[in-house]
Amino acid sequence: METLSKRSASDVTALLKAVSDPTRLMMMKLVETNPYCVCQFVEMFGMTQPAISQHLRKLKQAGLLKENRSGQWRFYSMNKESIHATLLLDILSHIDDSDAQLQALRAKEKPVDCI
Amino acid sequence: METLSKRSASDVTALLKAVSDPTRLMMMKLVETNPYCVCQFVEMFGMTQPAISQHLRKLKQAGLLKENRSGQWRFYSMNKESIHATLLLDILSHIDDSDAQLQALRAKEKPVDCI
DNA sequence: TTATTATATAAGTCAAAGCTTATACTTTGG
DNA sequence: CCAAAGTATAAGCTTTGACTTATATAATAA
């Protein structure tokens, strides 16, 4: 874990690019507290499965996500060992938990079995 | 000044989009401490004047910059009254001051009169 | 006033980003 | 083994973004 020292500007830019998309920012806010699988995100965001997978790939390539396979499902959660974790958590902490978009997403969350 | 309360997700996304470009992130890091005019940035970044102006326009439209006219020059500085100021300062604080790119830019800084 | 300097804006180009549909891969259940 | 479900990847389309050149605007200097 290298969360205490400061980062190069290009490291910071890479993180910002990864989360400057509204879908991906919301994804990171959601996985901050719980893991989600692709099919859950598909339901919550109302996007096609490839679109969701492509966003998750970008976040994973930026080192922000951990992947956990369980049966047919792949669960994604925040990689808190990322060199970006401190800054990312800082950014996410500025988002109001009562944000309408965020609450709308959470309202659509379903347990994996029921989908 | 509304820097204490939390922001909507779309507000945060707007800020992140504004500073997720390497040139604009550096600009904000620079104007955090000093005002700069367009011609100084042109020298420092080695970009054309319209390219610099267009980046500055984006930052201004996001509410991150204050503009101060002095003679033929327009000086830009950080708008610390922006609703984004707290988060922006947080982000900038994660950039190492000894970052090579940043130091290279500062090395090219010249007083306005001498350009 | 006229020329010069600083800056903004407009229009066009090219590459990147986000989406779509189609298809491949992987795991589970019969 | 075979079908179905979950996920990834490939290819194509469309929009956006960062740049370029050309031009307009504004302030100063001669």
From TrEMBL, chains A, B:
> PROSITE patterns of this UniProt entry?
HTH_ARSR_2
State the UniProt keywords alphabetically.
DNA-binding, Transcription, Transcription regulation
Has UniProt tagged this entry with the keyword Transcription regulation? Answer: yes
Q: Which GO terms describe its molecular function?
A: DNA binding; DNA-binding transcription factor activity
Start and end residues of each HTH arsR-type domain: 4-99
Q: Name one Pfam family in it.
A: HTH_5
* Name of the protein in its database record: ArsR family transcriptional regulator
